[in-house]
């Protein structure tokens, strides 16, 4: 389906998904499409800046605003797949959001500033969304951000396999304000073999339906030639988050299982999140989940023989505070087992000589500086390296921060900035 539109054209009955393509000629309003005296789409150019405002029926008074760069002669594309709305300039992604509802152009009056607008359903832009972009090498990871408008790095989930430190992270736009505050985070990845040169990878686990409000923090495990990523999905209807997993043959391209794990009494299931999965000497896989029990924060504990069927146990750790221990992590290093968790963004660690506890808290057990947000760790070539983020201006999302840890004879850790 494709239409070419001249000025002041009333659109016919069109599908709810569409692509608009037009030249970025001149300044001011490049395109206005309105229904019932209310605009559905407005695209405006201010000097070298593009601004697209798209109104969706689920939030009619809070339009999605996309921003990007424009140069004379650039082509502009607005892509609405029904799950994702995106602004491109010269086929290059500028900004995006993951809306709810429909932006219906059926019967709209379309006014065009200059040139001709093509309305079609060619979703080649979306088909290429998860593909690897141009080959890129990153040497200054501390100052690197994903390309595009208003991007930042969120929670980090490092994972090592076959000599590669795979730094998975939550790809953030708008500092958690995408999708009307749901966050709309997705798993992205950047990898290294030496902590000096980094290689961005394709988007690992994207949002693929409107019901997914955010792909949240989790962990990874490699078993029988398969990499499994466990994570929570924040639901768009504000129902309890879903604990689920995706699998990959290479640690790069993942397929969602569409299967779920649910906490039951006595755990509080609504805020269940941040699953950490690991193998233990008892032959079982163990999952730790951020939750509460009897009003206090805890790490729920589940076990499985096969990473698919999970059985609920007593809490792994129960705190004496209502705050929930977020983004748990556990690993063995230098003859000790460590359990890491974060309270209000700042991480602390317990230590034990047994992989399943009991746990003690060494003096000064904070992981790195206080502004290092929700760090987790992985070991490459004997080097224990924590990855987290430092927030921009105190809000959610910012830049990478990595710290190498060294173990003391009593189990304490000391930290040195790596980037």
How would you explain this protein's 3D organization?
With 419 residues, the chain is mostly beta strands. The chain folds into two domains: 2-127, Jelly Rolls (Sandwich); 141-417, Tachylectin-2, Chain A (5 Propeller). Helix content is 1%, strand content 53%. The chain has one helix spanning 124-127, and strands at residues 2-5, 9-10, 18-23, 28-35, 38-46, 49-54, 64-69, 75-80, 85-89, 92-97, 109-112, 117-120, 151-161, 164-173, 186-192, 198-200, 212-223, 226-235, 242-248, 255-261, 273-279, 285-293, 296-304, 311-318, 326-333, 336-343, 346-352, 373-380, 383-391, 398-407, 413-417. The strands form seven sheets. It has a six-stranded antiparallel sheet with strand order 1-12-3-8-9-10, with no helix packed on it. Strand 21 and strand 22 form a beta hairpin. The longest helix has 4 residues, at 124-127. It is elongated, with a radius of gyration of 23 Å. The N and C termini lie far apart (50 Å). 41% of the residues are buried. The mean pLDDT is 93.
Name the CATH class of the largest domain: Mainly Beta
Which descriptor suits the 3D outline?
elongated
Q: Work out the strand percent.
A: over 45%
Total strands: 31
Assign a percent range to the helix content.
under 10%
Low-confidence stretches: none
At the fold tier of CATH, the topology name of the largest domain is Tachylectin-2, Chain A
Number of helices: 1
Major β-sheet strand ordering: 1-12-3-8-9-10
The biggest sheet, with number of strands, parallel, antiparallel or mixed sense and barrel status, is:
6 strands, antiparallel
Question: Which structural class is indicated by helix and strand composition?
Answer: mainly beta
Report, as a whole number of angstroms, the end-to-end distance. 50 Å
CATH superfamily of the largest domain: Glycosyl hydrolase domain, family 43
Mean pLDDT: 93
**Cα-atom radius of gyration:** 23 Å
The CATH architecture classification of the largest domain is: 5 Propeller
Any idea how many domains?
2
């Amino acid at each position: 389906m494709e239409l070419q539109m001249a000025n002041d054209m009333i659109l016919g009955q069109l599908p709810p998904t569409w692509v608009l393509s037009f030249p970025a000629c001149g300044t001011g309003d490049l395109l206005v499409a309105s229904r019932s005296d209310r605009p559905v789409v407005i695209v405006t150019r201010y000097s070298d800046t593009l601004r697209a405002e798209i109104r969706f029926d689920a939030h009619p008074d809070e339009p999605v605003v996309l921003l990007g760069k424009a140069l004379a002669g650039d082509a502009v594309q607005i892509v609405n797949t029904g799950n994702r709305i995106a602004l491109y300039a010269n086929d290059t992604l500028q900004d995006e959001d993951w809306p709810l509802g429909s932006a219906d152009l059926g019967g709209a009056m379309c006014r065009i500033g200059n040139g001709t607008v093509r309305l079609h359903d060619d979703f080649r832009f979306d088909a290429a969304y998860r593909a690897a972009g141009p080959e890129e090498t990153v040497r200054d990871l501390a100052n690197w951000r994903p390309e595009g408008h208003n991007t930042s790095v969120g929670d980090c989930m490092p994972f090592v396999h076959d000599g590669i430190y795979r730094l998975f992270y939550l790809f953030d736009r708008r500092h958690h304000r995408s999708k009307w505050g749901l966050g709309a985070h997705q798993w992205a990845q950047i990898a290294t073999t030496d902590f000096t040169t980094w290689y961005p990878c394709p988007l690992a686990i994207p949002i693929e339906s409107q019901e997914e409000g955010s792909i949240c923090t989790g962990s990874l495990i490699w078993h029988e030639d398969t990499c499994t990523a466990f994570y929570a999905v924040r639901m768009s209807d504000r129902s309890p988050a879903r604990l689920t997993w995706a699998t990959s043959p290479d640690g790069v391209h993942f397929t969602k299982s569409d299967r779920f794990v649910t906490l039951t009494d006595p755990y509080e299931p609504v805020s269940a999140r941040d699953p950490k999965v690991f193998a233990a000497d008892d032959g079982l896989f163990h999952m730790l989940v951020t939750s509460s029990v009897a009003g206090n924060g805890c790490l729920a504990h589940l076990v499985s023989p096969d990473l698919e069927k999970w059985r609920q146990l007593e809490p792994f750790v129960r705190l004496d505070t209502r705050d929930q221990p977020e983004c748990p992590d556990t690993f063995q290093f230098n003859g000790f087992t460590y359990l890491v968790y974060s309270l209000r963004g700042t991480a602390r660690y317990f230590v034990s000589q047994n992989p399943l506890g009991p746990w003690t808290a060494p003096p000064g057990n904070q992981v790195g500086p206080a502004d290092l947000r929700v760090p987790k760790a992985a070991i490459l070539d004997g080097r224990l390296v924590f990855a987290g983020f430092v927030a921009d201006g105190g809000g959610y999302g910012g830049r990478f921060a990595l710290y190498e840890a060294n173990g003391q004879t009593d189990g304490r850790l000391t930290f040195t900035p790596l980037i």
